[in-house]
Amino acid sequence: MKKPELLAPAGNMEKLKYALHYGADAVYCAGSRFGLRAKAGNFSPKELKEAVEYVHNRGKKIYVTMNIIAHNEDFEGMKEYIKYLEELKVDEVIVADPGIIGLIRETAPNLKISMSTQANTTNYYSAKFWHDMGVKRIVLAREVSLKEVKEIVRNTPDTLEIETFIHGAMCISYSGRCLLSNYMANRDANKGDCAQPCRWNYSLVEKTRENEHFPVYEDERGTYVFNSKDLCLIDQIPALIDAGIDSFKIEGRMKSVFYVSSVTNVYRKEIDRYLSDPENYTFDPESFEELRKISHREYTSGFSQNKPTNKDQNYDSSTYVRNYDFVGIVLDYDEKSQIATIEQRNKIEIGDHIEIMTPKEDFKTQFVTELYDEKNEPLESTPHPKMIFKMKMTQPVAAMDLLRKKV
């Protein structure tokens, strides 16, 4: 049985470190140019060098996105950038444009190329075509069912790796190739600057009645006709592995450290639990509950089993479900005093009931009974953003453990 790679998003260096700490086999990120998440933070050339060294020192892999739909002017400086990625020994470059593929093959022929989901690969003829063009991995379009994935794996060379999304935001356009943002906000979705107008509230206007707006709504707040639920395939791990997929991809380079850590942790545990004893495996419903504790839209299985219906759209609201607050990151723990040093991410107060998240383990709980500032003066709460404070723990914790509390 093939063990799939768990591939997590890394919008910046902090998220990269937490993705690996919580169980990712590989991360994907972008440099300051040529990637499709302009607001993700991304990596300068110096930071990218640091990131590659950090990942490789831990025996993991790092993939860099160059998946813009390129115009002529976008190729300025690209050849030098490709050479730099080759020098860094990045494990893979993710692209969507045939011109960029050609430039990579010409400039750095040993650099591994992965075809982005932006290329909309939905069949094995396309997959074989890209393989003939020098592509070593295909990130399939989100619009492909598991049945189709099996057919693609069966009908493509063994040397071609197949990657699919298993969790994260869905898009109304084929794998994200959307023009709404260009026309409505002058922000190019295909260059990483999407304004997500598909989440906005709409009314209907008839051509000859320009000043009359007819609301199209489910309730008094309106409707969000393009607003897909979030993809979640945590209960389909056996079927995904059986399909022969090489890499399970989590979406979310613009999401928080808490999101990246939580989602990676849940999928890592469920994948490992299945692979350790496939014959006796049963899905743990607690995994769903864990994924509901992060900020998310309602979940859907997307195209995995069948084409989505009206039930896979969210007609009530474009807002996220936020049942838990991410409240802190453990920086250090003194076993003798049972005091943890913590960086605040949201307010904690005496009496709060918190949950502690640790890699590959079930979460722990405790009440907050003692808080101190850096000078060991007692506190009633931690009101200042990212303040460093101390907390009495009822059980051991470790650096990079995360704290959350129910809203």
From TrEMBL:
InterPro entries: Peptidase_U32, Peptidase_U32_C, RNA/ubiquinone_mod_enzymes. The keyword Transmembrane does not apply. GO terms for biological process: proteolysis. It comes from the Bacteria. PROSITE patterns: PEPTIDASE_U32 (PS01276). Pfam families: Peptidase_U32, Peptidase_U32_C. Keywords: Hydrolase, Protease. The keyword Repeat does not apply. Residues 322-404 form the Peptidase family U32 C-terminal domain. One of its GO terms (molecular function) is peptidase activity. Belongs to the peptidase U32 family. PANTHER family: PEPTIDASE U32 FAMILY (PTHR30217), TRNA HYDROXYLATION PROTEIN P (PTHR30217:SF6). This is Putative protease.
